[in-house]
Amino acid sequence: MDFDYLIIGNSSGGIGGAEAIRKYDKKGTLAIISDEPVHTYSRALIPYYLKGNITYDKLYYRPSNFYNKNNIQTFLGKKIIKLDVKSRAIILEDGESLNFKELLIASGGVPFVPPIKGLNQNNYFTFTSVDDANKIKDKIESGHIQKAVVLGGGLIGLLAAEALSSFNIEVSVVELAERVLIKVLDNISSKICEEILEENGIRVITGHTISEVINNPDDPDKIDKIILDNNEKLDCDLLIIAIGVRPRLDFLKDTEININRGIVVDNHMQTNIPGIYACGDCAEIYDFILDIKKLTPLWPTAYIGGMIAGFNMAGHNKEFTMGMNMNSMKFFGIPVMSGGLIEKPDDGNYEVLTRYEPENMIYKKIILKDNIVKGIISVNSIDRTGIIIGLMRNNIDVSSFKAHLMSDDFDLIYFPREIRNEIFTGRLL
Amino acid sequence: MNNLQNGTSIKIDAKEIFYKDLNNFILDSALKGIKKIILNNVFGQRYIASRLYNIPKIEIEVFGTPGNDLGAFNDGHQITVYGNAQDGVGNTMNEGEIIIHGHAGDILGMSARGGKIFVRDYVGYRAALHMKHYKDKKPIIVIGGTAQDFIGEYMAGGIVILLGLGLKKGESHKPNFVGTGMHGGTIYIRGVVNSFQLGKEVGIVELTEEDHKIIEENVKKYANYFNKDVDEILNNDFIKLIPISKRPYGKLYVY
Amino acid sequence: MKSYLLPEFKIIRDDDRCIRCQVCVRQCGFGVHTYDEENDIIISDESKCVGCQRCAVFCPTNALTIMTNPYEYRPNANWRKEFINDVKKQAEGGGVILTGCGNDKPYKIYWDHIVLNASQVTNPSIDPLREPMELRTYLGSKTNQLEMVDGELKTVLTSQVMIETPIIFSALSYGAISFNAQTSLARAASEFGTLFNSGEGGLPKELRKYGKNAIVQCASGRFGVDPEYLNSSAVVEIKIGQGAKPGIGGHLPGEKVSIPVSRTRMIPEGTDALSPAPQHDIYSIEDLSTLIYALKETTNYEKPISVKIAAVHNSAAIASGMVRAGADIIALDGIRGGTGAAPKIIRDNVGIPIELALAAVDERLRKERIRNKCSIIVAGGFRNAGDIIKAIALGADAVYIATAALVAMGCTLCQKCYTGICNWGICTTDPWLSKRINPDIATKRLTNLLRGWSLEIKEMLGGMGINAIESLRGNRHHLRGVGLNKWELDVLGIKGAGE
Amino acid sequence: MKRIQINEDVCIGCRLCEVWCIVAHSKSKDIIKAFKQEKPRPIAMIRVQEDIPISFGAQCRHCPEPICVFSCISGALYIDENGIVLHNSKKCVGCWTCILVCPYGAIMRNEDEKTALKCDFCMEQGTPSCVEHCPNEGLTLVEVSENGF
Predict the structure, then answer these.
(1) Is A349 within the bounds of a domain?
(2) CB distance from B49 to chain C under 8 Å?
(3) Interface of C with D (CB under 8 A)
(4) How far is CA A296 from CA A326, A392, D75, in A?
């Protein structure tokens, strides 16, 4: 079959691409391929789903008539075997070949599972898909789950831990680094998060990892105990491994597409092959704060990357130059955000503003370089954080209103008049 | 009209020319690019240089006796009078310079907001009345002799330097009510003034370095214009008068 | 010292309607209303209330009623409440009582005792909807006669200013009123084809583009007066006096001299802007003439020069002198003229009603055959188109309105202009309060007023069978007095009704 | 395409925009009932910012390229056919990603519901209530191009 546009991936990057293409090209033939046999849903919601905050149908990222309305053909539950760059086709598992003029690869990532003694195919769970969530759900519903261990103190791991704890399960989080959320928070803020988790009954074990899994002698798919690298033994009825994802690139083997840690793309999200684009967790995008290309597995980044790709695929020149690290999290109701740098680099003329009120569990840190914001962390004082992210994105000199930056009521009113005028007339941000 | 043009300067015999016609002539000349106008036989013609708004700066030399409001609303021109001037010299003057080789009448520099006036000899009543300043616009009046009453009345800014030349040794200055209602600016007086001569809104303060500099600079100019001995003038005590309050009538009202 | 004064106003808050939105709290610049969070109520300190009605107008649920405090002292026809309170005020403060706005005393308002004529049977009235009606007015000195040679006009005409309606905005100086208020007046004048008057506080640079519609004042303080200012105008007006405070000077208190005000007045920020009582270069008619011609010289004889005086006992003789001194326009301001600040005792007791002054001046100038040498603008409490048309029939060329213009912009005559706080954003230089005047809205309100009154004047003119305002000027036959004494009728130069 | 223009020069800080936003999003649409009876009281989606003498009411700008919509993890934020950015609170999980990205700080938190809250341009009534009730034209409706102001 021939398509004007093919999109590999049915999550935010793929949908972003599809919606962008349809903004300019309502007629061109467009298909989305995914190995998951489900309507587009939000991976980011699975902790909420597992917890029971939302029902299954609320996982859907777009309304049920989305593909119809946008004239999108779908190949769901179809695994891709191969991309043939020369003949501009992808080959599906069932042998079907789909030709494309323009291709967007938004294949996302696969959970990384390290080799651990005793681990087998069936005695642990990952936590990146609705399928994972359903399996965990079934396991919990089957009963007898009293103690759980989550390997990985990153965002997914902690959210999984919080979800599990809502079932009155005793949860331990094991993190090899000296603190949780090491990639997105600084020392103080991650300690606050640990505190929140501990206060809510989750044990946080940092600086260690699992060295062995002891299975039930009667049932090799059932874990009895976890042994840590310090020989501590943890009772465990359920193990979740959540130490991160790696780009899903298997079907790109032996193609001439440039791959580093992820697919290398330019600011138009195009790979080295004209007409083939990539975005999301499988691609390396430009981070304007760090001035490097890197994997940035974030929901908004995936969507926007897909959208930029889609615009270009439909013939509208657009660049993505605003990529950056940013995260919005919530642990037991306490909101935590970060964006850009989390620690002051050693070199350069950096300035750090901090505000820490342990009694209110409020922490705020802003990193400046030559009066330009380069990073923010805020715990429990998150309203209007987007304004600060906007300052970063627009390289706005904050010297005239620096005194207000850290306060809870920081707002546009403290901007210089000229900047505000530009903002209100949409010329900025 | 009899006039004699020589390059960018022009000379005219103003005898019996109606002031409006004379001022028409000055305006026309200035518009033609004349830079210096010499008026001979001036006899009471008013408003000389008043009609030169928005015109490149020119010089006017007046021989004789100009009439009232010489240089009223002056917008930056230089007027030199070889003779005495009447009332209203530099009335509400904006910029420029007026140099009187003789005496001047009442309300010299009234409401001036900029420019300089040098009078060689004496001036009449209410000189520098309600003179003001704003930012770098600061009128300066230097009077060689003494003045009549109410000098600096309502003064709101600017500088008056009263030199008292021609007074006998120990003889006090003439004016009473000096600086009545004054609420801005500075008056420097060389020679004797009795405290009863001062308005109740002014106070005497010590001169600073800066004051001496201002006096010196302007006295030099004065001496230069009128061929006087600078050192002799400066070699004498000055007193400095400033208003006691920026708001002399602030407490007059109940709300 | 404990004040023995009672609040002037009573604030009634309908608690069933009050939603605690605190709009009243935020709208009162005098700090009358405060929100008590603990008890979730709004407390109103009536002693601070000036009765401006801002809170009541802005209350979204009409929960507020502000009324005169109905307390009574023992009735006393002599010692009325006002006098008792003024004495208390002075006993407590020991100064001159200041006030704002025009005289509020019950002097006879002659407009209310003069009625207009209308055509019936023997002369046809004109329908202004169908027939052209001319309100256009030219201000300035008119020549005695026109000389034509070979069909060409030989007479050199004096400068004239044309206005589309005989209604001009009177002097309201920047500093006394807000920049936005002055901008609105300038824009409305420009849009409608009439004039506004800068007052004596200078003309902000931003408003110089409205110079073609500006009367700029040269007063005793000479604030902001320089050749550029004088030339940024249609008319230059020498202000001798003002109806609200004849014979005295004025001063803008230092706290109102903000940075922009100081820039416009060209005086340092925070200093009092003192306007001496007389102009010290004018002690006589001859001196006045000197200044008139100084201004004509400075403006190259291109602009009519107006001289404004307060209406006083000898207005007629003074006006005659003013015309002979060269004034092209005479502006007379009557006892009911407004002010931003005046001693109450002066405002309420000095001067004469404009009706009498106008009649006397017009009569005198006619008798002396110099009425054509000047235009007459009258000011002082014109409340409606009826007052205006009567003034024109009494001899005026045009009228100045200021209070009416302020009311159009929102003023409720609370008379607190001198405090610098104006809840309607008019009479203040406070940048926060000034925002309350949106020039777009205020301009519209002002042009609407001019339009309404002009239409009414046309209606009345048509009713009298006149199709040009020119034909009504000084035509006192169209006026009759009601309830007036003989001397009043004589001064006004009109017959009694029925005669 | 119409958008709300903010004119801070004439904002008088009365906060009537907030009051009428609450009324517009109340059940009764009656000002007195909305304030005195409805519990919980709706939350104003316009916020008056004040640093006297500066003030202005600011609400969602309804950007032509709304980063909040692009970033929303649940699909609760969307652009309707008029280009208005709307929020479906039923889909919202309160992850606050929109707050993290909105450069105007225009998205608020409904603390009771744990969902985001934003201006809906008063889609039901035509003219946004804040604009309609602004007594000084500090907020006005202006026609803008597809790409915004």
Answers:
(1) yes
(2) no
(3) 16-17, 19-23, 26-27, 58, 60-61, 425, 430-432, 434-438, 440-441
(4) 9, 17, 21
- Interface B–C counts its CB contacts (< 8 A) at 143
Spatial distance between the Cα atoms of C360 and D124, rounded to a whole number of angstroms? 65
Hey, is B206 helix, strand or coil?
coil
What is the domain partition of chain B in residue ranges?
116-253
Q: Residue ranges of the domains in chain C?
A: 9-95, 137-496
CA distance D34 to chain A (A): 26
If you measure CA to CA, which chain D residue comes closest to A324? D101
- Do residue A120 and residue A238 come from a single domain? yes
How many angstroms separate the CA of residue C180 from the nearest CA in chain D? Answer: 10
Q: Does domain C137-496 have CATH number 3.20.20.70?
A: yes
Residue A384 domain boundaries: 339-424
Element housing C410 (H / E): none
**Residue C52: what pLDDT?**
98
In sequence order, the β-bridge partners of residue B187 are B160, B241
Tell me, which fold does domain C9-95 have in CATH?
Alpha-Beta Plaits (3.30.70)
Query: In C, residues 319-358, which contact B (CB 8 Å cutoff)?
Result: 343
Query: What ipTM was predicted for this assembly?
Result: 0.91
Last residue of a domain, one of A209, A243, A277: A243
With a CB cutoff of 8 Å and minimum separation 6, the contacts of A235 are A146, A147, A224, A225
- Contact: A412, D104; criterion CB under 8 Å: yes
Shortest CB distance from C23 goes to which of D10, D16, D35? Answer: D16
10-residue mean pLDDT profile of chain A (429 residues): values are 96 97 96 96 95 94 96 96 94 94 97 94 93 95 91 96 96 97 96 96 96 91 92 95 95 94 97 97 95 95 97 96 94 96 91 96 96 97 95 94 93 93 72
Q: Where do the domains of chain D lie, and which CATH numbers do they carry?
A: 1-59+124-144 (3.30.70.20), 62-118 (3.30.70.20)
Name, in order, each residue with C-beta under 8 angstroms of C75's C-beta and a sequence gap of 6 or more: none
Question: Does the beta-carbon distance from C268 to B133 stay under 8 Å?
Answer: yes
Q: At what angle do helices A155-165 and A187-199 cross, to 10 degrees?
A: 20
Q: Establish whether the linkage from the previous residue to D53 is cis, with ω within 30° of 0.
A: yes
Task: Indicate yes or no: CB of D135 within 8 angstroms of CB of C22.
Answer: no
Report pLDDT digits (tens) over A382-399: 999 999 999 999 999 999
Set of chain D residues whose Cβ sits within 8 Å of the Cβ of C19:
19, 31-32, 35-36
- Average pLDDT of chain B? 94
Q: ∠ at Cα C315 (C311, C317), nearest 5°? A: 175
CATH value of B116-253 in 2.160.20.60, 3.40.50.300, 3.60.15.10, 3.40.120.10: 2.160.20.60
Residues A254 and A287 placed together within one structural domain of the fold: yes
In this structure, is residue A386 part of a structural domain?
Answer: yes
What tens digit of pLDDT does each residue of B55-102 get? 999 999 999 999 999 999 999 999 999 999 999 999 999 999 999 999
pTM of the entire predicted model: 0.93
